[in-house]
Amino acid sequence: MSHALLSPSASHRWLACPPSARLTEFLADSESSYASEGTLAHGVAEEKLNHKLGRAKNQPVCDDAEMDEYTSDYANFVMEQTEGLKDPAVFVEQRVDCSRYVPECFGTCDALIVSDGVLHIIDLKSGRGVKVDAEENDQLRIYALGAMRMFDFLYLFDIVRMSIYQPRLGNVQTWETTTEALTEWAETVLVPAAKLAWKGEGGYKAGDHCRFCKAKAECRARAEANMALAAYDFTDPALLQICEVADILGKIDELVSWASDVKDYALAQALSGTKYDGWKVVAGRSNRKYTDEDAAAATVKDAGYDPYEHKLLGITAMTSLLGRKRFDELLGGLTCKPEGKPVLVPASDKRKELNTAADDFADPIENMED
Hints:
Strand content: 5-15%
Helix content: 40-55%
Number of strands: 5
Shape: globular
CATH topology of the domain at 8-199: Lambda Exonuclease, Chain A
Order of helices and strands: HHHHEEEHEEHHHHHHH
CATH class of the domain at 8-199: Alpha Beta
Number of helices: 12
CATH architecture of the domain at 8-199: Alpha-Beta Complex
Distance between the termini: 73 Å
Low-confidence stretches: 365-370
Structural class: alpha+beta
Mean pLDDT: 88
Strand order of the largest sheet: 1-2-3-4-5
């Protein structure tokens, strides 16, 4: 499948770091099992949505119980979004041309609903690794701009809705804006950044957008940004101050991620023949394993022993076995969700703050009225 140089799906990166588009233009893509799974899920979802729209005769069935369930839920969600709209039309896997704002740019909307006054873009995210937000989502905004132009001769849109449907993380969000605000963003933010990216100009900038960049391990700007932490201007006394720890916390996740990316890249290059001064490739530690598991089990059974472990399936495996609805029917009353282990996150995180030891042991007299 061909991809635009400035694709909507990569816009979060090239909007923040324009020259990265040309830098990575000819670097090879790495196909992962997750990408293959996502492609399959989108194909199943497309068939199910078309069936609900009366465009396919047979009800699609997926062998993966979890995928079968969440793709059905997605199709139901899309249909629910048509309620209350005037003469809605639903387009599935609709390609849109976005080149009015971004050179040679195009993309494919998982689901596109057009109606009098309202345009709605819906994007299925089948992954469970990274939560995707709908609010001010660059990919969906570019899709919406392409769709607005595609249908402007038939519809007059005032409202643009953009939804992320990410079922495996329980993440379903819809963000709404106006066509006026969307057009203003395109002219003031999107177009200038796209011009720089197309020419390979502008400054390199490291950030969370580096996560899916093909040059993330080799990028000098990212290396310099992370190495700056190693040269942190620590002040006396010898122990770090609270403000210094707070500053480091804001950088350390990206530092660890970058270091891991560099190690993985260096190993891959070394295995291909690259020599790094002072380093060599050796065999890592390994554990013994059976050369023939069936033969090993049969031998142990013949000796009068049980060679197998017997334990209850975990929640995820049991849900895959039964299906989410059947799981809830049979085991809903026999499950609970204990409080998670405390974790330190930025103050902008939307989760409720836990009571700390200082809160628990605060002097109650201080809270009493005189």
